[in-house]
Design goal:
The chain is α+β, with helices and mostly antiparallel strands. It has helices spanning about 10-15, 20-35, 75-80, 85-95, 100-110, 125, 130-150, 160-175, 300-320, 340-350, 355-360, 395-405, 410-415, 425-460, 475-480, 495-510, 515-520, 525-545; strands at about 115-120, 180-185, 195-200, 225, 230, 235-245, 260-265, 275-280, 325, 335-340, 365, 380-385, 485. Among the domains are: about 75-295, no CATH class; about 325-350 and about 360-385, no CATH class. α5 crosses α8. The longest helix has about 40 residues, at about 425-460.
Length: about 575
Amino acid sequence: MLNVRMNVLDRAAAAISPSWGMKRMAARATLSAASALTSSPTSPDGGRIGGQGGYKGGHTNRRQTRGWFARPRSANADTLGNQKTVIGRARDAAMNMPLATAAIERPVTFTVGTGLMAIPDLKADELGISADEARTLGAQIAADFDNYMSSTDPDAARTATGYDQQEIVLRGVLESGDILGVRVMPQNQIGRYHETAWKLYEADRVVSPANHDEGARVDGTGNVVAGGVEVDDFTAPIAYHVLKSPPNGFNGVAIGRTPDDTVRLDAWGEKSELPTCVHVMTVKRPEQFRGASVLAPVLEILQQVSTLTEAEAFAAVLTSMVAIIYKSKSGNPMPEPDYGTDRMVDAAEGWQTAATDAGARASDLPMEVGSTWEIEHDDEVEMKSPGRPNPAFEPFFKALANQIAAAVEVPYEVLMLAFNASYSASRGALEVFYQTVRKRRDWLAAHWCTPVYRAWLYEQVAKGRYRMPGFLTNRTLRERWSNVRFRGDGKISLDPGREANALEVHEAHAWKTGAEITAELTGGDYDANVERRAGEHRRFVDAGLPIPNQQGGGSAPATDQPQQTEVPA
């Protein structure tokens, strides 16, 4: 419905001639109707869409953003465009820049630590076994898998244990963006007890076939291949293309690409339905085939910090030196200082001459403590010092390091291992970092540890070492038999006494369970601890020793009677 109202001119025309005013109103109504039929699309609220938009960050006519050229691209276009350069620079930074090294090693140490241990989670009611059978079998599997992971059997190269591989995998993801693990069965290796092993390939080994256009369909299968990852119509990986040898060779010499320099590895085993290849990376965007180094957003600032640090370190070295300015009015050159190094070097090399053994060139000035020089009457010697380093270096360095710490999700205090602030500030930094560690630990368990565990368990069942009905024939039962969770090291405690009192309150009010507290503090197993403590308690009682956890701090005499604790009303 059109709403045409009279304006000032309409009222003036109607006052002079009513018929003239009616014609103006009719003409205006006709014009409004025609304009409505030909208007541009509107937004849901009725307003027209166009112009620069409301966000100033998207405006192109502002001086602050005039030189900022950016356009939306796919995840693969952003990741694969300069992947080799980013990987190379990230690795170089991790090797040669202390801040980058800390940004990589700190998450690895806190996340993996001594290793993520498997805790089988067998639900007796779902598997048709008793609770005691589930507990016994779970303990046996956990012990056997720990023995497997503590050996070098999980590594096809037999140079790292299974727990070492967890560290290598996480470091490869953080440093290079991703890493590929290939399941192999090296049956011809002497002394191997478990056949299931994993061959790890770094990110630069996973590449598309030679002369292949990234994102195009590969000949033979017709599947899309980008960054060495071959996917189906749902962009799910079905195969990986891996270089047969390192891209720079084993001696560091660059090798040119050839048509047959890659091998195609299926992602899944058809018979076992187990993953043949485990591609570990952090996915941040839909349809992302490859990962990016955690250092990628901060490589530029890392380079600047490294340059600044080197300059300040050199300035500090210069400060420790003494500069001498020799002013000669007679025009004679300054005698050459003799630091005694020639004699020492000559003696070490065994070709000391008689002249140097005599030790004196008349033009040399010996640089010794308390020495006295005689110079020309009109000559002068002036001592100069280049001055101290920039006093503003430390706060500026800390400001840049804070930006890097925020980007890599490692608080500055943890990144620099500098707990110089108050207890609350240091505890807050550790708690914030622990949230990242817990998230990354769950991620590593899901994307690497669980596939390794399930592949190992499949071998054990296939060889008859465990009796698990339906494991090899029923997918649902296999999932239930394969349920597992992983436990890592505990948190750092800055004030164990204060934190223990707080955890005691949490447990008393059922805010946390004993199992949760044990896992948080030490990464241990609460049920196993209870059994061990019961045995310790019995041994203390049998030996007539005071009970350590009894009221009185262990000073009370031992007794077979249960301890009585008064509960306040």
